[in-house]
Design goal:
The radius of gyration is 17 Å and the shape is globular. It has a single domain, classed as Rossmann fold, CATH 3.40.50. It has a five-stranded mixed β-barrel with strand order 5-8-7-6-9. By secondary structure, it is an alpha/beta fold. α1 crosses α3.
Amino acid sequence: MQHDSELSLVDTAASFLRQKLGSAANDLRLGLVLGSGLKGFAKQVRNPVVVPFGAVPGWPKPHVEGHGGELVVGTVGGAKVACLSGRVHLYEGWRPAEVVRAVRTLLRLGVPSFLLTNAAGGIADDMTAGDLMLLSDHLNLTGQSPLTGPHEPAFGPRFPDQTRVYSPRLQQLLVATGVRLRPGVYAGLLGPSYETPAEIRMLRTLGADAVGMSTVHEAMALNAMGAEVAGLSLITNLAAGISPTPLAHDEVVAAGQQAAATLTTLVTDFCERLA
């Protein structure tokens, strides 16, 4: 049985969205990925056109609480945005190519810049729950990559440079909003279990400031394809061995809801600067 190539799947999804969205797909400025507990921001999109992930050919659907599973296209702060309310993860059983299929589709649709958000555990000593970390770099510790397998030139060079995965220009625009942001390194792990205290000590030694289970593959795939990428981590809890209490997904979702106002201010101002 012959399977469709990943490029074919991505372009089929992009073609579907061009037809489904019509003029709403024109002149998109930003792709926004909303992480755990942050899906509420999608309500800030004006004149929204909503497409469930399940309606897009080839797109996998998330099965984790706090991940909505909708594409919301509209306007934020005067800029046209394509907002992915939710994402899928390796720990759900998806392959890396499936994890990044949605963002690759948006890039093929013409979206030039992306803001990837996530919920993360704080590792650095000066972090507290509720902080926002601006990703300066990442550690891909999942043991997997969306760039392995037969080379597809449309997805970038065989050996893409990763010196500046996170765009200095976009970072400057985010800092210019005036919202307090702490720069740091995000460690992406496979999950779904939270890390042990020993693993957190290892991550701290490696230079990680926060840890989560997403984002790195999306950033790698988009960087390889030439997109501008920025990343934000909402620190929802202190990591194992730092937090005095056991870790639970409920607190991640709750922290995302509490940070909704700050995130709305930040992203709206950022979009105004992009417009």
